[in-house]
Amino acid sequence: MKFAVFGAGGVGGYLGARLADAGHEVHLVARGDHLAALEADGMRVESVHGDTAVDLPATDDPADIGPCDYVLFCVKAHDTRDAAADLEPLLGDDTAVVSFQNGVDNERWLAEEIGDEHVVGGVAYIFSTIGDPGVVEHTGGPARFLYGELDGERTDRIEALDDALSASEGIDAVLAADIAVELWRKFAFICAQAGMTAASRLPIGELRETDASWAMYRRIIEEVCTVGSAEGIDLPGNTVDEWLAFARDLDPEMYSSLHYDLTHDKRLELEALHGSVVRHADDVGVDVPMNEAVNAILRPWADRSER
């Protein structure tokens, strides 16, 4: 099958390389120094699940690629609307655009630009980033990817995607029964992990050792789950305890991509994380003081990064 990876960074680059190794036609959409390196030397993936190197066509112009069976949409959430406007050359009648991004709003933003019929939800559990231009470093996490049609239907295209990802080495592929539940489950965790490591500038190990900080970490998860439930998302009752158990087992030096972006003067995904929690909470009349606090602490930094 023919894939385009729109945003060939830590998540998209990893997926693209694994799919190419499995024999699929893969095209990469990237920019800047990373694109230049991909064009000159191909892409290298350094992974805890095994290294690989692939030489794939790469471009910053989707018109060079043409219609695809699937577009793996892996840009930062703050780039979603702008990037969605560039998707048209990649779309055929039944093309699925699979969002593997942080947050619970990206699918709606995509649908507003390209139509509901093209959008598939996705969730990625992987710790990976661009180490150097042309190099994707996968340092941890299960490399687990969940996906599903937004209406829960088992379409031919989602089953074909499941077959392709399941057959690719280094990918733990899961066709979700209800992708909205999975999106909100990850949202609850990432708001706690990203918010607390970025706001404190400290890793998870030190947060676990500080009672007040660990209590706040828990309350962020609880608040997000409460908002999701108020919006009709059928989150499992043990979601909070599951994430706390997961967080207790993380490497004590683990931070988050939000912390990385904050400390490297990059644009922050704050609006797609805690800003989104606050907006959704206002819509359903739920109080989210811990998420409001993180949003307030990081908002000046987010505004500075936009400038």
Describe this structure in words.
46% of the residues lie in helices and 22% in strands. It is α/β, with parallel strands linked by helices. It has two domains: 2-177, NAD(P)-binding Rossmann-like Domain (Rossmann fold, 3-Layer(aba) Sandwich), CATH 3.40.50; 181-306, N-(1-d-carboxylethyl)-l-norvaline Dehydrogenase, domain 2, CATH 1.10.1040.10. The longest helix has 22 residues, at 179-200. The model has no long low-confidence stretch (mean pLDDT 97). It catalyses: (R)-pantoate + NADP(+) = 2-dehydropantoate + NADPH + H(+); (R)-pantoate + NAD(+) = 2-dehydropantoate + NADH + H(+). Residues 179-299 form the Ketopantoate reductase C-terminal domain. Belongs to the ketopantoate reductase family.
SS-derived structural category: alpha/beta
CATH names the topology of the largest domain as Rossmann fold
User: Helical segment tally?
Assistant: 12
Rg, Å, rounded: 19 Å
Q: Helix and strand layout, with pairings?
A:
Layout: E1 2-6, H1 10-21, E2 25-29, H2 32-41, E3 43-47, E4 52-54, E5 58-59, E6 68-73, H3 80-84, E7 91-100, H4 106-114, E8 119-132, E9 135-149, H5 156-166, E10 172-175, H6 179-200, H7 204-208, H8 211-230, H9 239-248, H10 257-263, H11 274-284, H12 289-306
Parallel strand pairs: 1-2, 1-6, 2-5, 3-9, 6-7, 7-8, 9-10
Antiparallel strand pairs: 3-4, 8-9
Helix pairs in contact: 6-8, 6-9, 6-10, 6-12, 8-9, 8-11, 11-12
